[in-house]
Design goal:
This protein is α+β, with helices and mostly antiparallel strands and 387 residues long. The protein contains 11 helices and 13 strands.
Length: 387
């Protein structure tokens, strides 16, 4: 990959001293739409992600080029012009991170030539945007010698997405990518950022991602609407209970206070946030006890809640997951990511993987009319410089 990047970089930007970087994508095994509700999540970094080739410049110019969007050509900007511009397209993500670092007192003293290449399908829900943000964080920390750890890099990257790009996302994606560890998932309490690594021992099974190939844009989806519904439900519960987030409630505590929520819709949204958080805690306990069957059952229950209570699945995701549930050798399957398209994640026994891909793919194409893509993925490390 370095050779491919080097060749393309020289063709695009000319000769010079180039440094190479990588940041992974992520998949969330369980704990969906809990991260902005103060709950727990359980994501892991993947071995697919975003590669970067960069070179510091002697002036203040920023030049961006993506091997995924070669027709777009080079986008030019400046370290003094870190403003969101719709026409700047994907470069708003790295520019947003540069802006967030500056807001936190870490100002770049010169520009750079920045080329990237992503092996994550765009719009798939495997966090191509957060991967690009963490890649940018790693690049500027190393290039300018900033004393910033990867937890703060994830916080600044989330700030970039919230305040610069305008997507009201939680911390999970950036944190999972920044803190990834091979063969481990991260059990993260999003209210405190306390976390622990849990080994993912799949005992003769694989993680299979199913991509619906239905594109979705988070900013213009119902993501912000769901977030607002949960915030409203929290305010209503706070009139009778002293809590800071829905993630503080057990199922029993929620059932005792749910009637103060003034609409059925908001009640369902809050129920998902509470129950999904508890499911995530139980799922990690199951994994630690080598009870993969229970882990899979909780994954399935997570999807049902996302479909019925949170209503973020849609026909494409439901078709993929329901087809997965009918396959031999499937331990568990659910949608992953924000929903409204994007991806599913399934744990499938090794001997069943080929049939799973063939049969689920056929069922999906028959019902939806176009094909899904499948990736057998491995859990990888966090961001790093490549040599």
């Amino acid at each position: 990959m370095i050779e491919k990047l080097k060749k393309a970089f020289i063709e695009t930007f000319g000769e010079g001293d180039v440094q190479f970087f990588f940041a992974p994508g992520r998949v969330n095994l369980i704990g969906e739409h809990t991260d902005y509700n103060g709950g727990h999540v359980f994501p892991c970094a993947l071995t697919i992600g975003t590669y970067g080739a960069v070179r510091k410049r002697n002036d203040d110019k920023l030049r961006f080029f993506s091997l995924n969007f070669t027709k777009a050509g080079i986008y030019e900007s400046s370290i003094h012009d870190l403003k969101y511009k719709k026409e700047a397209n994907w470069t708003n993500y790295p520019k947003g991170v540069m802006w967030a670092f500056k807001e936190n007192g870490y100002e770049m003293t010169s520009g750079m030539d920045f080329m990237c290449y992503g092996t994550i399908p765009n719009g798939s829900g495997l966090s191509s945007s957060a991967s690009l943000e963490i890649l940018t964080s790693k690049v500027i920390i190393d290039l300018f010698g900033f004393d910033v750890d990867m937890i703060h890099a994830s916080i600044y990257s989330q700030q970039a997405e919230n305040q610069f790009v305008g997507v009201n996302c939680g911390i999970m994606d950036q944190f999972a990518i920044a803190m990834g560890k091979k063969d481990h998932a991260i059990f993260l309490d999003t209210s405190s950022l306390d976390y622990e690594y849990a080994p993912v021992k799949l005992q003769g099974a694989k993680i299979v991602i199913g991509n619906t190939n239905k594109k979705r844009g988070l900013g213009d989806s119902k993501y912000n609407e769901r977030r607002a519904e949960c915030e409203e439900a929290l305010k209503e519960i706070q009139t009778v209970k002293n809590i800071q987030s829905l993630g503080e409630l057990s199922e029993e505590e929620f059932e005792a206070v749910k009637d103060v929520i003034g609409s059925d819709v908001r009640r369902k949204r809050a129920k998902h946030a509470v129950y999904e958080n508890q499911r995530t805690i139980h799922a990690v306990e199951a994994l630690k006890a080598d009870n993969l069957e229970l882990f899979g059952k909780l994954m399935n229950e997570s999807h049902v809640s996302l479909r019925d209570d949170y209503e973020v699945t849609g026909k494409e995701l439901d078709t993929l997951v329901e087809a997965a549930w009918q396959q031999e050798g499937v331990i568990g399957a659910r949608m992953t990511g924000a929903g409204f398209g994007g991806c599913t994640v399934a744990i499938v026994k090794d001997e069943a993987v080929d049939d799973f891909i063939k049969n689920v793919g056929a069922a999906y194409k028959k019902k939806i009319g176009y094909k899904a893509d499948f990736y057998v993925v491995e859990i990888g490390d966090g961001p790093r410089q490549l040599h």
